[in-house]
Amino acid sequence: MKNKKTRLFIRISRLNRKWNNELLVTLFFKQQLNFNALKKNIKGITSKVLANRLKKLEKYSFIKKIEAPPKMIRWYYKLTKRGEKFVKSLLDVINHGLGEEKKQ
What is the pTM (predicted TM-score) of this model? Predict the structure, then answer.
């Protein structure tokens, strides 16, 4: 049981880093964006932090990097199925919490 609990906390801490949720939710609503568009949509994030978060989220299979059509040297980022499921769950939790606040 302790080993499962430790793995769960490790997974949660990976996703709980600053900017990760905002990045995932932005991609959820915008479908796919390139690096510069992501940077414009997420106010205050630096290029270095954005690049780091994109690499990590890609490593954990929450997003994928897609090459643009030929002759365009550009990459786009898009949620994977896993990323979509996570964001939907996150939005459900947020909406549930907002519903509870209204009751009080």
Answer: 0.72
